[in-house]
């Protein structure tokens, strides 16, 4: 499939199409890959059939606000549309979510339309001030929109899970466990830009939020020779109180940079599946190489509740991490993924179960808001 081309229209919505004339990768529609028995459970077998790519160029304006920074994405079964969360910290417009119309079916991803944006409001029912929130992940629940503010290790902005109404009004904020707020000396708490990056609503209704990399007191961030131990917090959704904490083992950086020294990897998103399994995205970047994107299936069953362990580096307790196994390698399929930070599972009008991934363009002219769609094929039961 090729890069999209702007369709000129007289409506306010921006509609972007897949264009076959401009090839961006050699992967054909219908290319399929997956895992027959992930985590040793053949009943959890899953495959992904590629449906295409749509790109919205950096700089596109929607109602006078720049579209981009898409770091969270979820499907709304009530409307059949998607909500996309921008990680703009109120510097280009209000902290906001976008409503998207995605035309996709078993034959391919055809177009993405940006319909409108919805400003999110704080506890005072005012739009957020500049740098007072850092939106990263979003999930739609029956009682509202759940979203994370990543927080800042350098700015001393604590990470948070927030609940808003569908019109953007403030409802509540979840409790933050001990040890997550950054300490003044930087010896404990979240690392800057590596905090509340991923969010899922479990089949039970509980909410799972994950760090992009380890807390300072839990060991190093990922490197070429070692991974990182990122905490996941399981919350009771109604009370906003933590129930448990688990360790998610992030893999080492898969590629060394060939230009400069910049290379990184981290947990950028996750989503729960109806059968109790969940998918995570590990997003890596190396200068001169580009992005490496892999999806994993995870299982919380059997993982140790590490709520009482304040520092993994000082603990002598036996701690069992979350189990994970790779189920999709975008680069291995021949795709050229950008900075994938958002993931949703939805339904097309023809009933096809869809995995939709989106890239955060960082509002950069050298990056793009990229949407990649896949048909999900489950194991027969």
Category from helices, strands and their pairing: mainly beta
* Element pattern in H and E: EEEEEEEEEEEEEEEEEEEEEEEEE
Q: Between the first and last Cα atoms, what is the distance in angstroms?
A: 33 Å
State the share of residues found in helices, binned by percent: under 10%
Number of helices: 0
Instruction: Report Rg.
Output: 20 Å
What gross morphology would you assign?
globular
Which range does the strand content fall in? over 45%
Provide the low-confidence segments as ranges. Answer: 1-12, 19-24
Q: Specify the biggest β-sheet.
A: 6 strands, antiparallel
- How many β-strand stretches? 25
Mean pLDDT across residues: 92
**Order of the strands making up the biggest sheet:** 1-2-10-9-8-7
Provide the descriptors you would attach to this structure in a database record.
mainly beta; six-stranded antiparallel beta sheet; five-stranded antiparallel beta sheet; 25 strands; 47% strand
Structural features, described:
The protein is mostly beta strands and 381 residues long. The protein is 0% helix and 47% strand. It has a six-stranded antiparallel beta sheet, with no helix packed on it. The chain has a five-stranded antiparallel beta sheet with strand order 3-4-25-24-23, with no helix packed on it.
């Amino acid at each position: 499939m090729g890069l999209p081309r702007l369709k000129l229209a007289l409506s306010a919505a921006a509609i972007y199409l897949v264009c076959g004339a401009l090839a961006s990768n050699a992967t054909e529609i219908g290319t399929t890959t997956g895992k027959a028995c992930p985590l040793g459970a053949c009943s959890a077998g899953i495959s992904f059939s590629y449906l295409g790519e749509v790109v919205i160029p950096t700089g596109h304006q929607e109602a006078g606000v720049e579209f981009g920074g898409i770091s969270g994405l979820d499907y709304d079964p009530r409307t059949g549309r998607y909500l996309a969360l921008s990680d703009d910290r109120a510097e280009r417009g209000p902290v906001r979510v976008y409503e998207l119309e995605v035309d996709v079916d078993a034959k391919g991803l055809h177009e993405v339309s940006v319909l409108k944006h919805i400003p999110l409001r704080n506890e005072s029912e005012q739009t957020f001030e500049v740098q007072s929130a850092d939106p990263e992940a979003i999930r739609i629940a029956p009682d509202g929109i759940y979203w994370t503010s990543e927080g800042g290790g350098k700015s001393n902005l604590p990470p948070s899970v927030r609940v808003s109404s569908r019109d953007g009004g403030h409802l509540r904020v979840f409790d933050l466990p001990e040890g997550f707020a950054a300490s003044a000396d930087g010896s404990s708490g979240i690392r800057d830009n590596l905090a509340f990056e991923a969010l899922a609503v479990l089949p039970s209704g509980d909410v799972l939020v994950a760090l992009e990399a380890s807390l300072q007191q839990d060991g190093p961030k990922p490197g070429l020779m070692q991974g990182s131990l990122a905490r996941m917090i399981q919350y009771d959704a109604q009370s906003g109180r933590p129930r448990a904490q688990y360790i998610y083992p992030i893999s080492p950086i898969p590629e060394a940079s060939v230009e400069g020294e910049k290379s990184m990897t981290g947990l950028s998103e996750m989503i729960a599946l109806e059968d109790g399994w969940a998918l995570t995205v590990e997003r890596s970047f190396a200068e001169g190489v580009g992005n490496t994107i892999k999806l994993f299936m995870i299982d919380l069953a059997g993982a140790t509740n590490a709520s009482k362990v304040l520092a993994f580096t000082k603990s002598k307790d036996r701690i069992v991490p979350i189990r994970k196994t790779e189920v999709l390698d975008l680069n291995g399929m021949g795709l050229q993924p950008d900075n994938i930070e958002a993931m949703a599972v939805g339904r097309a009008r023809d009933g096809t179960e869809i995995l939709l991934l989106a890239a955060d363009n960082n509002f950069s002219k050298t990056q793009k808001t990229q949407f990649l769609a896949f048909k999900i094929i489950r194991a027969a039961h």
